[in-house]
Write a structure and sequence with these properties.
Elements lengths: L2 H6 L3 E4 L5 E11 L2 E10 L3 E20 L1 E6 L4 E5 L3 E15 L5 E9 H5 L1
Antiparallel strand pairs: 1-2, 2-3, 3-8, 4-7, 4-8, 5-6, 5-7
Length: about 120
């Protein structure tokens, strides 16, 4: 999708420094409390990215499109995301780290739904 078309459709791109590899995530706020994120990462070196969900709880649906990545909570729980698998994760006030392997592509589509949207 061309950048102008992506922006017109409400998608916002976040791209890491090109020196880190090809790592980008496109986000689209569908409605209040419902967010789509399409990420496509291929880091040159192993990458650890902080992730914070301390403001509220919710549900994350992760659809593995290609490759694999991991998530480790600050409490020590580990999640693994793989191509061809869909993972449902319920959380409440947790933070952790998203982890990507060096030279490996990890592409995912995530649907994030906060508590208010779940209640609706």
């Amino acid at each position: 999708m061309r950048e102008q078309d992506r922006e017109a459709a409400g998608w916002v791109r976040r791209q890491l420094d090109p020196g880190m590899g090809e790592c980008r995530a496109d986000r689209r706020q569908v409605e209040h409390g419902l967010l789509l994120v399409h990420s496509d990462y291929r880091p040159r070196l192993g990458l650890v990215e902080p992730s914070r969900h301390d403001d509220a709880g919710g549900l994350v649906i992760t659809i593995g499109l290609e490759g694999a990545s991991g998530y480790a909570t600050r409490d020590g729980e580990q999640l693994r995301f793989r191509s061809g698998h869909t993972t449902l994760t319920a959380f409440r006030h947790t933070s952790g780290e998203r982890r990507f392997e060096a030279g490996q592509r990890a592409a995912q589509l995530r649907v994030l739904v906060d508590e208010d949207a779940l209640a609706r």
